[in-house]
């Protein structure tokens, strides 16, 4: 479904801000907070974010690369995300972040004791909660943008 965007309006700003201002502005604040207040390393952050983007099929999420202090992941990082199980480009934290994102999106009931044992060996509880909130935000907002066709007509601002 495509949302009718009035001429001259920014699609994201219109849908998120004007159509449902009470919900949309809160959602926008959560989306921004994930980027502005993260304590996660850039590689694990991007591994999880890009895995959700791949699952959602959100075109601009797939093109976006988070920048921190002038640093971004390498251009072929998305290929490593696709092959998160076998790539040698990931350390344990990045691999677990990609795995967690995938399982959270596709099989959250399958997050068993074996997985949590591996996860807690590499992440603190604070980091796991932060990663979970981030993955949840990317899942819902990327899907919203994809379902409404916003991903085909939007350009994300630099944060």
UniProtKB/TrEMBL annotation:
Pfam families in the record: CMD (PF02627)
Molecular functions (GO terms): peroxiredoxin activity
Keywords: Oxidoreductase, Peroxidase
Keyword check for Cell inner membrane: no
Keyword Oxidoreductase included in the entry's annotation: yes
InterPro entries: AhpD-like, CMD-like
Gene3D superfamilies: AhpD-like
Domain Carboxymuconolactone decarboxylase-like: 28-102
PANTHER family found in the cross-reference section: 4-CARBOXYMUCONOLACTONE DECARBOXYLASE FAMILY PROTEIN (AFU_ORTHOLOGUE AFUA_6G11590), CYTOPLASMIC PROTEIN
Protein name, as recorded: Alkylhydroperoxidase AhpD family core domain-containing protein
Organism, scientific name: Lentzea flaviverrucosa
């Amino acid at each position: 479904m495509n949302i009718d965007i009035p001429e001259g309006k920014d699609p994201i700003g219109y849908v998120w801000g004007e159509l449902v201002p009470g919900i949309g502005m809160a959602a926008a604040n959560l989306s921004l907070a994930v980027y502005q207040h993260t304590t996660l390393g850039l590689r694990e952050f991007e591994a999880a974010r890009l895995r959700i983007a791949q699952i959602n099929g959100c075109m601009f999420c797939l093109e976006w690369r988070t920048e921190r202090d002038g640093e971004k992941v390498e251009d072929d990082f998305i290929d490593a995300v696709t092959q998160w199980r076998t790539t040698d480009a990931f350390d344990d934290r990045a691999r677990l972040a990609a795995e967690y994102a995938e399982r959270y999106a596709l099989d959250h009931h399958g997050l068993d004791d074996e997985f949590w044992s591996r996860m807690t060996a590499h992440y603190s509880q604070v980091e796991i909660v932060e990663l979970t909130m981030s993955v949840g935000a990317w899942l819902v907002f990327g899907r919203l943008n994809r379902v409404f066709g916003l991903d085909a007509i939007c350009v994300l601002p630099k944060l």
